[in-house]
Amino acid sequence: MPRAATTSDAFNAVAEPRRREILNYLALQERPVGDIVTALSMEQPSVSKHLRVLRDVGLVHVRRDGRQMFYRTNADALRPLHEWTGEFKRFWRQQLTQVKELAEAKTRRGETSPAPQEEER
Amino acid sequence: MPRAATTSDAFNAVAEPRRREILNYLALQERPVGDIVTALSMEQPSVSKHLRVLRDVGLVHVRRDGRQMFYRTNADALRPLHEWTGEFKRFWRQQLTQVKELAEAKTRRGETSPAPQEEER
DNA sequence: TTTACATATTCCTATATAGGAATATATTGG
DNA sequence: CCAATATATTCCTATATAGGAATATGTAAA
């Protein structure tokens, strides 16, 4: 069995970096295809094809105005992704807390703190 | 150009549903390969191959104990995904707020509230 | 060492790209 | 209707699977 189609779900669709760029660009406001082409320096057919994939999984909405097609990101379709990754939040939070507590405990004991494994953003 | 390798980054690696299942299963505690095979009803070579991909992108860590290999999810490698999707949070939050405010405003005016488009979790 | 157990890798195949080039479709203005 | 503009689709190709089957590798027990 080959890899699942990019149009099978949001997870597969956003695996492509250019599609993520497009979603970023279309998040703030709707834009015609031409704007995407110039803003992201991509070939027009390439943009159309990526938009097709994003549209098939509901990651963008479209509106026609004359001969232009205005696309905009449908942020809601990204929620499943955010929620799934969020399930793991407690694990990295836990790690951070443990590291922090360990460091603080050592500080209280006057020991030298080791270089942290993780970095808070 | 074909699709990027599944081992190119976490985004591509988690596009495969079985790999997400494996990550879910390995989140709470480390497990030997055999446990994954029985728990998720997958073929052993299949599990090994998925683990290989997950390992290549740092989504799991491994530890050998005798002839068993204990894998565990490295939640930290999922943070980029969570953070990227989180950028769009304000857009769906905004929608929710607007819907809610609209409903409340109508209620104050004694109008019938429409079925909500979105659902809070 | 020989055997058994646990896991990993190799081989094979059908399928799904992503990009480039060329072309088709849709809509507006003259 | 015809030309021009804006997008979409088709064709072609090299590459990367994911699963199944068979096999290889590594480690412990007898």
Detailed description of the structure:
The structure is a homodimer of 121-residue chains. With 121 residues, chain A is mainly α. The first copy, chain A, has six helices and three strands. The first copy, chain A, has helices spanning 10-13, 17-25, 33-40, 44-56, 79-86, 89-108; strands at 31-32, 60-65, 68-73. Chain A has a three-stranded antiparallel β-sheet. Chain A starts with 9 loop residues before the first helix and ends in a 13-residue tail after the last helix. Mean pLDDT of chain A is 84; it is low at 104-121. Chain A binds chain B through residues 3-4, 6, 11-12, 14-17, 20, 23-24, 27, 73, 75-76, 78-79, 81-89, 91-92, 95, 118, 121, and chain B through 3-4, 6, 11-12, 14-17, 20, 23-24, 27, 73, 75-76, 78-79, 81-89, 91-92, 95, 118, 121. Chain A binds a DNA duplex (30 and 30 nucleotides) through helix 4.
Strands of the largest sheet of chain A, in order across it?
A: 1-3-2
Q: Please give the count of helices of chain A.
A: 6
Shape label of chain A: globular
Strand content of chain A: 5-15%
> What is the largest interface, and how many residues per chain?
A-B, 32 and 32 residues
Q: How widely separated are the two ends of chain A?
A: 39 Å
- Compute the average pLDDT of chain A: 84
Helix and strand element order of chain A: HHEHHEEHH
- Report the C-alpha radius of gyration of chain A, rounded: 21 Å
Quaternary organization: homodimer
Weakly predicted, low-confidence segments of chain A: 104-121
Q: How many DSSP-defined strands of chain A? A: 3
Structural class of chain A: mainly alpha
